[in-house]
Amino acid sequence: MPIVKYPRATEPLWHEWDGKAQKCGLRHTVYAVNGDRYTGEWLDNLKHGKGTQVWKRTGAIYSGDWKFGKRDGYGSYSIPDPVTKEYKKVYTGWWKNDQKCGYGATFYPGGERYEGEWSGGLRSGWGRMYYRDGSIYEGQWLVDRPGGQGMLRLPNENRYEGGWKDGKKHGPGKFFYLDKGQLFEGIWAADIPKCGILIDFGRDEAPAPTQYPIPKV
């Protein structure tokens, strides 16, 4: 009985090429049209898992977690110094939907830094900010500014404890003039004390106490 051979059905070559082009799992460096490059894990042609992205225009680097093409999870973001070209860490912490979200630390130019909570890429929740002049704010943040209850300690150890709004002292608060041995307690509005009382506080330990003590009522 003669054997009849039927030709095997062949798929178009573009099917094979397209299959190879689908990115899923761990891949070597993949270059974008604009020169950006990514090395890491993929899922359904999207960055997903652990990976490192380098932006060509700025030279910035993100290394950490990705979810469906966006930074999501824990990771660090660094940029090169314009003079030395050495990389400086800008942010280390948690991300969600490509924005800072959760607990993280940001390092600003001039040595300032923030450690605390973020939401939608803005400082929000509890956090501590170290300013260039040596001041430290610790407390609540709202929409990238101190808002709620917090304490500001100045370089000379004087401090304010109380309410904040839009980054300014607002509401009931106490200002400790530890260098003079006095305490002002009252109500603030937009950084200005509106009413309150001034009493002696820690005059014996004050380095430069006021010349005359405040008489008790």
Notes on the structure:
The chain has 217 residues and is mainly β. Helix content is 4%, strand content 58%. It is built from 1 helix and 15 strands. A 15-stranded antiparallel β-sheet has the order 1-2-3-4-5-6-7-8-9-10-11-12-13-14-15, with no helix packed on it. A hairpin with a 2-residue loop joins strand 4 and strand 5. The chain is elongated. It is found in: Cytoplasmic vesicle, Secretory vesicle, Acrosome. Keywords: Cytoplasmic vesicle, Repeat.
Task: Give a nutshell description of this structure.
InterPro entries: MORN (IPR003409), MORN3 (IPR052472). The protein has one helix at residues 13-21, and strands spanning 25-31, 37-43, 46-54, 61-67, 70-80, 87-96, 99-107, 113-119, 122-130, 136-142, 145-153, 159-165, 168-177, 182-189, 192-200.
